[in-house]
Amino acid sequence: MSTHVDPPGGHGRPAVPLSAAEALARCVTVEPAKFAADHWGRSPLLSRAAELPSPDGFTDLLSPADADELLSRRGLRTPFLRVAKDGRLVPAARYTGGGGAGAEIGDQVLDEKVLALYADGATLVLQGLHRTWPAIVDFARDLGAALAQPLQVNAYLTPAGSQGFATHYDTHDVFVLQVDGRKHWRIHPPVLADPLERQPWGGRADEVSATAEGRPELDVVLSPGDALYLPRGWLHSAQAQESSSLHLTVGIRALTRYAVVEELLALAAEDARLRASLPFGLDLADPDAIEPELTETVEALRDWLLRADPAAVAGRLRARVWPAARPAPIRPLAQAEALARLNADSEVAVRGGLRWQLTPAADGRVTLRVPDRTLTLPGTCEAALRALLTGEVTRVGDLPGLDDDADRLVLARRLLKEAVLVPA
């Protein structure tokens, strides 16, 4: 099992595996501090394979043979596959159908239809690989720990000479990891800096097209093992070269200050002045009539913001972010077997990548928050909980702060059943 370091502040973040730094090092050729200062959210970064640590590039994450396996033998369904041609998405009905006897589903990917589209120049997009392909599940968890942000991983398979999508921008940062073949990328500066998810490129299609006609900021061909970081908003298009291309796109959904604003406004519903009705008969189309109400509303909002509780805002942000990053998978059958055989000599560890927050409660108990639930436990368990949550492998009989092995086993069983712990 990987060695872990304590999470900052002792709560709120999962124990961070040392492999997280290795995951980031696979994507960038600069030190993390330099990447954060000079590139994160600011400017593209091209990292060539010769300067990156993996001699085999990214084929260990997903090879062309792996992609074929997903498309042919894994019962893939939409939306885990999208197909694009000439800059447009192909309707799913053109490549999906019934799953055969006993399946009782009508949207299973049909390999022969996928073949026809791909052979005709369509790009295949395998979506959500951070949930479906084991090597990428682990890589995404480590990279997410390094960035402290939720992320997703898609794969793009493009036939020789084809381009799946027209010039566009994304509303999230991306790492492009070239797995196989070569792809020509043209990168232009943003037409809208730091776009929010509600500000997609389609609303600025004319600006995007006009900017794409100009000289690109970066005009490069990615070869196997190369990596490219793009901040959100940067325009890009990509075309496969003399052979088919496979690349992974890691999308990082970074939180913004606007997210804080959204949560503040949600909490502002507690303020009676802001809940007050507008005057009877107010002409909403008349700026002069609206002006005094606007002034009063701004003053009420300002007064409320000065009293805003950081803990309440943090709680809402936690509820927004934690569910977006899945912890390490558990094996339900093995977990149940570990529960049945648990004894004082059993070794356990906190589930990798689990978000948690441990706080004392007013009644002498302790509260353990995880993404989808809250556990309340006796205060005598606090020392044992803190020992477990460091991420280190722990023998059940060595848990501190509890009087005897019977109490230690009760706590370990509870946490195994709640999927907070896993057998080491």
From TrEMBL:
Q: Which InterPro entries match?
A: JmjC_dom, NO66-like
Q: Which Pfam family is an annotated match for this chain, by its short name?
A: JmjC_2
**Required cofactor(s):** Fe(2+)
Domain JmjC: from-to ranges: 122-269
Tell whether rRNA-binding is among the UniProt keywords.
no
Q: Which UniProt keywords apply?
A: Iron, Metal-binding
Please verify whether the record's keywords include Metal-binding.
yes
**Which PROSITE patterns does its entry note?**
JMJC
Kindly give the SMART domains that the UniProt entry links to this protein.
JmjC (SM00558)
Q: Can you name this protein?
A: Cupin
